[in-house]
Amino acid sequence: MTEYLVNKHSEGLIPHKDELALARKITRESNYNHKLVTLSAPGSVDAENFKLLRAKILFPKNGSRPRTMMITSAFPGEGKTFITANLAVSIALGINEHVLLVDCDFRRPSLHNILGYSNKEGLHEYLTGKKQLADLIIRTKVEKLSFLTAGSSPSNPSELLSSAMMKDFISKTAGDSQDRFVIIDAPPAQITSETSVLSNYVDGIIFVIMAGMAPRQTIQKTLETFGNKKVLGIVLNGYTKSYKSYHKYYGNYYSSKQETLT
Ligand SMILES: Nc1ncnc2c1ncn2[C@@H]1O[C@H](COP(=O)(O)OP(=O)(O)OP(=O)(O)O)[C@@H](O)[C@H]1O
Ligand SMILES: [Mg+2]
Questions:
Q1: 22 alpha carbon to ligand 1 midpoint, in Å?
Q2: pTM of the complete model
Q3: Would the CA dihedral through 187, 204, 73, 4 be positive or negative?
Q4: How far apart are CA 126 and CA 75, in angstroms?
Q5: What phi and psi values does residue 209 have, to the nearest 5 degrees?
Q6: In this structure, which ligand is nearest to the CA of 192?
Q7: pLDDT tens for residues 82-108?
Q8: Ligand 2 center to 111 CA (angstroms)
Q9: Which CATH number fits domain 2-261: 3.40.640.10, 3.40.1790.10, 3.40.50.300, 2.30.110.10?
Q10: Distance in Å, CA 89 to ligand 2 centroid
Q11: For ligand 1, is residue 144 a contact (CB within 6 Å)?
């Protein structure tokens, strides 16, 4: 298993001239949040860390290139969406790689916020047969990055994400090309049941740990449920928040989940 590190603190590195120009152009045309550091701070340490992560994924030491992957964590708020969005942009900025970014976190969708889009309809509408995929997929200003928002909030998120239609959707959109990737922002594994089913539908999992947050034993237990082969790597997210605020957040998430389920 490989470990990667994403720091909070940026500054310093000089980006490739073409990439900087491209990032500036996209910045002029889009409405993304500054947390999309791969575009807002292309020379930063954070952006460079995402390039390293991209390289590890595109050129794995062992085995074949994973083309469908999900990003998850044990608990909410560990940085899944931040990592997912930046990783997807980083891969799509490469020369050949096409990425479909999918928000599968029906309970707390937020990829649309960091990318600067609204979330009226998306995956939910596709999985329930209300809309065609072609009418839902957003072509972002990053040329090879497409995006499917979560859509309206379903009453049965676990069933939808565990469905055969979801499985087909992932394999169909990944297709056969080695340069086509599906990257999924998944719900936290300890809070929802769908993450473990979803893990069977993807080639690999990137597991995010916010430094000093989830207890070591829980992390180990969660990783064991996925199995060592499925976990492509661990991102130790260096962002720090107080332990107290984390637990407050976790408590809120859990109660909103209960409301959704009943
Ligand atoms: N490395 C980082 N640098 C700066 N900000 C970060 C970093 N990691 C996370 N954050 C910020 O912390 C907050 C929580 O992160 P994020 O929304 O990505 O977590 P999450 O795991 O997707 O949460 P949820 O379980 O609710 O979906 C966001 O405001 C995000 O922008
Ligand atoms: Mg999230």
A1: 25
A2: 0.86
A3: negative
A4: 27
A5: -125, 120
A6: 1
A7: 999 999 999 999 889 999 999 999 999
A8: 7
A9: 3.40.50.300
A10: 16
A11: no
